[in-house]
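Researcher: We plan to redesign the surface later, but first we want a full-length starting point. Tokens attached.
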């Protein structure tokens, strides 16, 4: 079953887990160009012994858009602890 991913309150991606494969895809909405709608944005395999990126990357360095998609999937897969950033004054 696909789940909707919202960023800053706006629906931007679909997420689906099928066995060991976690997939982030572009939904069929006006936010994305027609050439991206329904396409896979990023895919990760979790075999229980580690994670492997299934999305072919064009280069060794990933750009900010790819990093964002990777971060979204990793946050979903590793939904354990809550990370917070603060300053010493706020503690």
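Model: Full-length starting sequence:
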């Amino acid at each position: 079953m696909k789940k909707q991913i919202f960023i800053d309150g706006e629906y931007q991606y679909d997420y689906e887990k099928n066995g060991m494969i976690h997939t982030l895809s572009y939904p069929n909405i006006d936010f994305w160009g027609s050439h991206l709608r329904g396409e896979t944005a990023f895919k990760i395999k979790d075999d229980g012994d580690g994670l492997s990126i299934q999305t072919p990357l064009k280069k060794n360095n990933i750009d900010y858009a790819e990093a964002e998609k990777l971060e979204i999937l990793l946050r979903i897969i590793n939904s354990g602890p809550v990370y917070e950033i603060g300053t010493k004054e706020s503690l």
